[in-house]
């Protein structure tokens, strides 16, 4: 109906019953209200030749009809601006493949929204669907799309990336039947992707989706002349970008705290950025990790080790002759 679609349009046939419901409600008068009145004994024996049953007011009937119509339309599942299917759209089973690696963690909320939308469309089309992760390879299980939608909250990325063995295991577990594939990629290049992509193309159409923002990873800290140097690398060139790096550690009481902060600047078209921190020995000894703010994945975190600590050593000499 124009820009509005329905997940269960057959339920709209219930709207045809509204005129019948209107007549039933008009024919049945409202329930009487009982009131105790002692003087009713004086009316006993009297007759009224003109008896007219009261009817439900028209405005109350209209409100009831609108309420019933709203319930019917709501159960039909209205969808604003639904995507119309073209002649090339397939009714084949849909395999949703995701890398689900550490690089997927930053954009995982957006990935879940995409999965929910795709599963909703597959459910309206009645397509069996399966979700597979390269970091947890296994044979895809095709089920109703609504079943997978109820399990989305339990699907999460892993803090590692799929190895060649994992990718090969996922390729070997693919069914021999035809299906369409939606591959949600983390954007990182791997040698084992080509064979998997060829196998997926032999089963049916393949659509690859990648995140729009480039990944940024933080290298291990270096210390020289008492200064800590941090290096970061981004996935592809872009405009000048400033990213804050937070130095985490503990306060004197042992509670987690932010000890310092610096800004790394990627020049326009550059892939690398560096920055230095000059901290007193006391703070360096309490450092635990460095993290690029706003990235939200394991590659944006690097741990501090004993090289950053400057330990104090005391020499004790005993008395001579003892």
TrEMBL record:
Domain Aerotolerance regulator N-terminal stretches: 5-78
Keywords, alphabetical: Membrane, Transmembrane, Transmembrane helix
InterPro entries: Aerotolerance_reg_N, Double_TM_dom
UniProt entry tagged with the keyword Transmembrane helix: yes
Chain segments annotated as transmembrane: 6-25, 58-80
Transmembrane as UniProt keyword: yes
UniProt cross-references to PANTHER family, sorted A to Z: BLL2463 PROTEIN (PTHR37464:SF1)
Protein name: LytTR family transcriptional regulator
Species of the source: Roseovarius nubinhibens
